[in-house]
UniProtKB/TrEMBL annotation:
This is Homoserine O-acetyltransferase. It is found in: Cytoplasm. The keyword Methyltransferase does not apply. It catalyses: L-homoserine + acetyl-CoA = O-acetyl-L-homoserine + CoA. Belongs to the AB hydrolase superfamily. MetX family. It comes from Parasediminibacterium paludis. The active site is at residues 134, 294, 323. Residues 39-327 form the AB hydrolase-1 domain. NCBIfam families: homoserO_Ac_trn.
Length: 344
């Protein structure tokens, strides 16, 4: 069951803006053992939630590699997200009204600094394994740099040390879709929703690739295949529209906008000596995993991580699904984890 952690003191963001308080939605599974050495902290991606059993069910859950029978599994919902943590719909204590457009966005570094309070409240002093893909991996890296002695093992997957110009361009294009929705400037929960649907369509192009669509989305929809040519609908178009509608049923444009900005902010070298020096400070045993067909976080970014994190191991997995392979290829990821982290 999702729980809420409340930090009822002011919280200063990297931007210098100050929140009077904050709260985090989180899930735990299993029990912290007497030695405190069985913690697995899972980091979710942009539109994920704090229950990895729902979106990483092949890795986390009963009978899986990370089973609550053995591990104390923790996952916190990102600040700014739709799924329970402080976000644009939260009440601003100063005004008594929802933040909406005044909600200050968190960097990935701000996020892990918020998680530090949750970690303390849960009585965690050591994390056996930290694992996350995409934006989740970005947060993991930030935390492993902020607290080098906290993690014994880290597994950043399909992620990077700083968000690339290519990735930022994708996110900016998605935000432009939201900005051009005529409802976006309104202060209500449904503002910008049609823009977000279009944004999701752009995002999918970066999450998958040419081959994915060639295999999965060729031809016309079954319902229109026998209609005149000017009434037929391509499967690829139908799929894009469907995915936008699907996200709109479970997410909101404010969160999508803020979290994409947070991803763009990711840069482990900011206000540190350099990116390389920051990565070199990581002391955890590290397994870096990339996806060969990932066009959003290409293999060169994971190879860079493995090159500059001391004694890191690099592994590449094959997947039809591009960047989304980090969510879908859980059997291969499990094999790599067992081989490289000596998991039973």
């Amino acid at each position: 069951m999702t729980e809420i952690f409340k930090h009822q003191q002011s919280f200063t963001l990297e931007s210098g803006k100050v929140l009077p308080e904050l709260h985090l939605a989180y899930n735990t599974f299993g029990t912290l053992n007497a030695a405190g050495d069985n913690v697995v902290w899972v980091f979710h991606a942009l539109t994920g939630n704090s229950n990895p059993m729902e979106w990483w069910h092949g890795l986390v859950g009963e009978g899986c590699l990370f089973t609550p029978e053995k591990y104390y599994i923790v996952c916190a919902n990102m600040p700014g997200s739709h799924y329970g943590s402080i976000n644009a719909f939260s009440t601003n204590p100063t005004t008594g009204k929802p933040y909406y457009h005044t909600f200050p966005w968190f960097t990935t570094r701000d996020m892990i600094r918020a998680y530090q309070f949750l970690k303390q409240a849960l009585g965690i002093t050591k994390i056996h394994i930290g694992i996350g893909g995409s934006m989740g991996g970005q947060q993991l890296l930030e935390w492993a740099i902020e607290e080098p002695n906290l993690f014994e093992n880290i597994v950043p997957i399909a992620t990077n040390a700083f968000h690339s110009a290519w990735g930022i361009a994708f996110n900016a294009s998605q935000r432009m879709c939201i900005e051009h929705d005529p409802t976006w400037k309104e202060d209500n929960d449904h503002a910008g929703m049609n823009g977000m649907k279009a944004a999701r369509s752009i995002a999918l192009l970066s999450y998958r690739n040419h081959n994915t669509y060639g295999v999965k989305q060729t031809g016309f929809t079954q319902q229109t295949a026998n209609l005149p040519i000017d009434e037929q609908v391509f499967n690829a178009e139908s799929y894009q529209r469907y995915q936008g509608e699907k996200l709109a049923k479970r997410f909101n444009a404010f969160s999508y906008y803020a979290l994409s900005k947070a991803m763009d902010s990711h840069h482990v070298g900011r206000n540190r000596a350099s990116v390389e020096a920051a990565l070199a400070s990581i002391t955890a045993k590290t397994l870096v995993i990339g996806v060969t067909t990932d066009i959003l976080f290409p293999l060169s970014e994971q190879q860079f991580l493995a090159q500059h994190i001391p004694n890191a191991t690099f592994a590449a997995i094959e997947s039809l699904y591009g960047h989304d392979g980090f969510l879908l290829e859980f059997e291969i990821i499990e094999q790599l984890l067992r081989q490289n982290l000596n998991l039973e």
